[in-house]
Design brief:
By secondary structure, this protein is of the alpha/beta class. The protein has nine helices and nine strands.
Length: 266
């Protein structure tokens, strides 16, 4: 059995992109701390990866939507004496609908997971990484980060924060041995769209939809190479470039149309 290259902390690890990144880390001989709300799925994944790759896995059932949850997680890890060499901030929430009508409590949870927990976890692992002059952080943003999103206003805004935050601290850390990468996928086939109420929208009926495994591989490769931003898929890259040069009013109109339900859908 090969010696572990270090320990990676992955949030939102029970499904989708987070699960696929955890598999890549295990295949690369990283021990894992897997975090998500679903303890059953985490236990199954942890056992699978430990058996297949001979790595140590620790599963932590934790709801990062609860204030203080990320800080408590960091305290537990610190007490265990484990150093985090790679942080994957993948956990994310979303909700669709007009802002005046959506659930305000849910939107505060979205901010807690997509912004506060991302910030707290990065803040917690960075001192140790800097002391060791080695470490990698992968923050999962979205192509939503590049424009406002009518009918998903809070989600789009949180992903804009993740992208801006990632780019800024990546610049600050230049030459330190620690890198920060923002993964900006377009629509991806995971359970996210069902939970956010996006299954019947135009966004998830078009050619931009990618599978989680392909997105994870693009993000993992970029993180290991120390790239600051990665946008998986040529179509998504082209879309982002078009957004940068298009009139803001047009960008908003297109974003809204993508979020609207398809004709004939409930």
């Amino acid at each position: 059995m090969a010696a572990a290259r270090g320990t990676a902390l992955v949030t939102g690890a029970s499904r989708g992109i987070g699960r696929e990144i955890a598999k890549l880390l295990a295949a690369d001989h990283y021990d894992l701390i897997l975090v998500a709300r679903s303890s059953k799925r985490l236990e199954e994944l942890g056992s699978e990866l430990a058996g297949s790759f001979g790595v140590q896995t620790r599963v932590v059932s934790r709801d990062l939507a609860q204030p203080g949850s990320a800080r408590n997680l960091l305290a537990e890890i610190d007490r265990s004496g484990v150093s985090i060499d790679i942080l994957v901030n993948n956990a994310g929430l979303g909700v669709a609908g007009p802002f005046a009508q959506t659930d305000g409590k849910r939107e505060l949870e979205i901010i807690q997971v997509n912004v506060t927990a991302v910030t707290e976890l990065a803040k917690g692992v960075l001192p140790g990484m800097l002391r060791r002059r080695s470490g990698r952080i992968l923050n999962v943003a979205s192509t939503a980060a590049f424009q406002p999103g009518p009918l998903m206003a809070v989600y789009y805004a949180t992903k804009a924060y993740v992208l801006s935050f990632s780019e800024a601290i990546a610049n600050e850390l230049a030459g330190s041995g620690v890198t920060v990468t923002a993964l900006c996928p377009g629509p991806t086939a995971t359970e996210f769209q069902r939970k956010a109420g996006l299954e019947s929208t135009r966004l998830f009926a078009g050619p931009l939809v990618m599978d989680a495994g392909r997105v994870a591989r693009a993000g993992y490769s970029a993180m290991m190479r120390g790239r600051r931003i990665v946008i998986p898929g040529l179509a998504n890259k082209a879309l982002v470039q078009a957004l940068r040069v298009s009139p803001r009013r047009l960008v908003l109109a297109i974003a809204r149309r993508l979020q609207e339900k398809r004709a004939g859908q409930p």
